[in-house]
Amino acid sequence: MGNTPARPSTSAEDYVKVIYDLQERGTGPVTISGMAERLSVSNSSVSGMLRKLNELGFVEHQRYGNVSLTETGTKAALAVLRRHRLLETYLVAELGYSWDEVHDEAEILEHVVSDKFVDRIAAHLGDPVVDPHGDPIPTREGSIVERESVLLSEAEAGTSGVVVRVNDTDPELLRYLADIDIGIGMRVEVVERLPFAGSLQLSVHPEKGGQTRDQVLGLVAAEALWLSPEE
Q: What is its main location (predicted)?
């Protein structure tokens, strides 16, 4: 097999992926409690695993400090994310899954499929650069096409742009967004921020020349959506 490094254990892959995801979503430094919440485990479990990942050279973490990935850890995370996001894309494009069903399925499959299998999927799908939720798909070499985007929850009144990405970790939220017909590719304008009501007043422009409509969206849902802002 040449000098390909051995794949990390399933739990190590889950941890580096979550650290990368929390870093990428940019809602502040990565902490033990933030990781514990995302992984639904105790703080002490996270601490124990971080010690192992530290020894393996995947993370940098001083006691009581923030957590960050090393270059090795980042490479490992991108490899898992490539498998995860290509599997999600395949399940939607070829097997008729809806976007709220694929995350949990891909969580299981990402640890068992070979890189060869994933590369075949990528070739079959025409090497997509984003998955059905707009998440960027890393290349085999571990590079990512970055797009300028802003979290909808942080967008000022008057900001308009196209929805380019949706956080896929909460299936109920994805079903809610589908119910109120907000998805990738739609133009959205922030008409007014209603912080005391915990919501945003939006104007939503459908893709295919439908009627523009007003929509009130809670800040929790707005924290899961990214806009590519228009000048």
A: cytoplasm
- What would the two tokens of residue 125 be? 């799908």
Q: Do the beta carbons of residue 89 and residue 131 sit within 8 Å?
A: yes
**46 and 13 housed in the same domain:** yes
Q: How far is CA 204 from CA 18, 171, 226, in A?
A: 31, 22, 14
Phi/psi of residue 205, each to 5°?
-110, 110
Count how many domains the chain has: 2
120 and 168 belong to one structural domain? no
User: What is the residue type of 221?
Assistant: A
Domain ranges, residue 56? 1-146
* 194 in the same domain as 86: no
Supply φ then ψ for residue 166, to 5 degrees: -135, 135
**In order along the chain (231 residues), what is the average pLDDT of each group of 10 residues?**
65 91 78 88 92 93 82 94 95 93 91 93 95 91 85 92 88 91 91 91 82 91 91 67
Q: Supply the CATH number for residue 175's domain.
A: 2.30.30.90
Entry pTM: 0.82
Residue at a domain's end among 124, 146, 168: 146
